[in-house]
Conjugative transposon protein TraK
Amino acid sequence: MFTKFKQIDSAFKAVRLFMMVVVACCIALCGFALYKSYELAAITQNKIYVLANGKILEAVAGDKKDNVAVEVRDHVKTFHSSFFTLDPDERVIQDNITKALYLADGTARKQYDNLRESNYYSNLISANISQRITIDSVDLNLNVYPYYFRCYATQKIVRTTSVLYRNLVTEGYARDVSRSDHNPHGFLIEKWNTLANVDVKIETR
């Protein structure tokens, strides 16, 4: 009889141990499932789906600090492209300059005012001159803040009878500001200065 009780007791202990293992596994599985679901939710929150031309495109959101170099370079390129891309049309010039001035401080405004007072833009319009710029490279120093940059570019000035090419080198600093429709990268160029703007070659048309 005592043997039966011992067997029952042993069986009960075995069943209890088995149930404890099952419960522990269930708790661990639930915890893992919760962890993965939170992880998936965090990843999903950083994804945006955009509908363009009937196609769904996925965009991934990220912290600004993750792509500072890329964003500063593109900001500098956008500013220079807007400031130096000119056509013999007063409205085009004004639109491009306005876009550029949203991306920089008063040093850019000062250079624009100097060019305007010297009749640079008026001469472009009267002589039917177009100006284009190609950004060759943008060197950055992210170890200092505001971030120092030096921009190397080539200007192409198309006149009625000739095409002039110039090497342009500028420098400045980029500091953080709030993002907006006018300033999507959230940087502002400061202490912008032209280091060189020299003729390289001229071609006859």
In short: The first strand starts at residue 47 and ends at 52. Residues 65-204 form a domain with the Nuclear Transport Factor 2; Chain: A, fold (CATH 3.10.450.230). The two ends are 117 Å apart (CA to CA). DSSP finds five helices and six strands in the chain.
